[in-house]
Amino acid sequence: MSEQIAPSAIRWPTRKQEAWKYTDLAAWSKLMPEAFSLAPAQADQAPRTLWQGDCARRLVWLDGTFQAAWSHGEAPQASDKADQRTCSALKDLITHSRSESHSLELSSADKFIHLVFAHASGQDALSHLSLDIEVPDNSEVTIIEEHVGGRAGLASQQLNLNLGANARVQHVRLQHCAATQMLIAGQHARLANHARLFQTHIEWGGRLSRLHSTLGLEGQGAECHYYALSGLGDRQHVDHQVEVRHEAAHAISRLRARGIVGDSARQVFNGKVYVARGAQKTDSDQLLRNLLLSDKAEVDAKPELEIYADDVRCAHGSTVGRLDDAALFYLRSRGLNRAEARRLLMLSFAERVLREIPDEALRHQTRDAFADHLSLQTPA
Known about the structure:
The structure is a single chain. By secondary structure, the chain is mainly β. It has one domain (4-324). 14% of the residues lie in helices and 44% in strands. It contains five helices and 21 strands. It has helices at residues 25-28, 91-96, 325-333, 338-354, 360-377, and strands at 4-5, 36-37, 57-62, 65-66, 77-78, 98-105, 112-119, 126-135, 140-149, 154-163, 168-177, 182-191, 196-203, 208-217, 223-232, 237-246, 252-261, 266-275, 283-292, 298-307, 313-321. The protein has a ten-stranded mixed β-sheet with strand order 4-3-7-9-11-13-15-17-19-21. A nine-stranded mixed β-sheet has the order 5-6-8-10-12-14-16-18-20. It starts with a strand and ends with a helix. Pfam families: SUFBD_core.
């Protein structure tokens, strides 16, 4: 008989903690299965992913367990290093999970990495995975991260990126899990002198998905671009908590987030930019934009600035609106029905983030999958 853990045995974060104000896991725990399985997951075939192209490494995890048979390229190394960056509110959850830790040291030959985090469709699993990625100085790499599959399990993940001086990383994260899967993820990035990080996070799957990102611009001239896009319907819930920390001078950060929220779904986005006392000549701005498709849908967007330097350029803004009636009328006057017109306007709104995907084939595949999801949520 496989080992199991009941959700009631875990102390969940509550709304009393500011970072969890809009995502009360204590309330969500009532919707979880009676017990989670801690047994290693089993599957007959490799997970189906959007990206099928060539890459230096394709590394696959199933419910937090590395799958060598489905992977190729140099495997990650097991690590027993305790992760001090894990959110304290989740430490009790991780203690009860089946947990693995790995580290990955890239080389100049690693131009394209595909990370696949799959979740078993046949069990309600509880798992945690920690992965450290070291990017050497003067290197350039594209990382495609996909979250797929699932049933009614809960996955916890911590991804740590360390960029060396003059490194350049394109990181695309696609979350298209099954409609009942729950995912709680953390990300911590450190950028050395003149390192550049371009991140694109796109989510349209899962029942509950939360990503807490801390981006540390620790070197002079470091640069970070963070793009996020969510397409939500039914009772989906997505929560992004992003903190950009400017610790050195002459650093640049751009934060752009867009959400399309329908039915009874909820989008949460909290973006905070922190500028330390010595981080002069900081150039930072963030803009949060959301579309509401239903009177029952909800958006909670909060951009923040905390500045301790006096020679900076920082700005932020947030908007929430509906589809433009005039634009809908124009498209319908050109022969489109209402559903087609709405779908086209939503894709136009999403395109600002979709176009940041660097690989053309993956960009088209993601756009098609995102559009298919939106069409399911669009009334005729």
